[in-house]
Amino acid sequence: MIDENLVLELLRVTTNGNLYHREGQELEFKEQFNLAGLADYFRDFAAFSNNKGGYLIFGVSDTPRKPNGLTEASLEQFEKIDPEKISGFLLDIFSGNITWEQATFENKEKVFGIFKISPALVKPVIAKKDEGKDQLIKNGDIYYRYGGRTQKVQYAELENIINKRIELNNKQWLDLMSKIGKAGPSNAAILDTEKSVIEKDDTKILVLDKALANKLKFIKEGEFVENKGSTALKLVGDVVPINRIEVVKRVKENLLKEYPFSAKELITDVKNHMKDCKEGEIYNVIKENDIKNNTDYAVYNFRNKKQEDEFKTTGKLPKGIPSIYNSKAFDLIIKILNNEKIKQI
What is the distance, to the nearest Å, from the Cα of residue 59 to the centroid of all Cα atoms in its chain? Predict the structure, then answer.
């Protein structure tokens, strides 16, 4: 969440009406917001992510540094931002996840646009492609937030990022080995959440939800269920009980294998397939058929576990969570668009 008290402090003025705070490692001011300047803002997003995170505040003039607020036209553009599209662009342009939030803030009858960018969990965030006017973002570049400016990372900061990543990896291995040592190899097992099995030695045990397990009966291979139509699973091999599980390896499900397309990539592929199709038409098909909320075609790409848990608990999707799509979504959109064109003939 964006801390309103902190934003109020960042917009504090001196007696002459100029801002008290200057731009720094965690703060950048912009005079107005313009959708045409997204590549410039994305550079700052990546730079903040590779350092300590920070705030990007729109509505502050440069010389002198005064909190004038957004113009009506600029505010209208800021409020038109589609968080799903922005997140899709970021995933398309940069490696890793960039966690960000957006809000408007009113102070003394003036409205400001706010982006809060969190430090990346896995650094460095690297540009995967050229983007923007005059290739403002370049493939392979790593951007870093220095005192009051965004630029390509320098040797010392990049070395520090790499060393911290190595230290974190080593710490995770040491923690894992420590737990195995305490439990003893004979008591240790691995829970693989991607395959939904617990592994011990060469044995793999299926993991089931208790409510589901109560509804199922198991049959040995080559045997039959007495009651026709009973819900059953075929059991190949034997179930080996494990008295204790001390070591858990959490393998994050690779959603990109099943849902490889961001919204931007999906739309680009559809347009390439149907040359006379407009982007707005595709978005209308996605919206009208609720494709982004249907797990047959799309899933939410949560930036962290906290957001996912919040959604599961409240049923309310946090802002800025993009959907990613599978090939079935592509096929459905093409089918719907073709049907619409046939009707127009």
Answer: 27
For domain 4-153, give the CATH number: 3.30.950.30
Q: Do 200 and 240 meet the contact criterion of CB atoms below 8 Å apart?
A: yes
* pTM tops 0.90: no
pLDDT tens, 25-74? 999 999 999 999 999 999 999 999 999 999 999 999 988 999 999 999 99
Query: Largest Cα–Cα distance of the chain, in whole Å?
Result: 88
- Long-range residue pairs from 195-204, CB within 8 A, at least 24 positions apart, any chain: 195/251, 198/242, 198/245, 200/240, 200/242, 203/237, 203/240
Of 245, 238, 119, the C-alpha closest to 179 is 245
Could you state, in order of their start, the residue ranges of all structural domains in the chain?
4-153, 154-185, 189-235, 255-344
List all residues 6 or more positions away from 135 whose beta carbon is below 8 Å from its beta carbon: none
In whole angstroms, give the CA distance from residue 139 to residue 46: 13
What are the CA-CA distances from residue 285 to residues 116, 265, 279, 314, 317 (Å)?
31, 15, 10, 28, 21
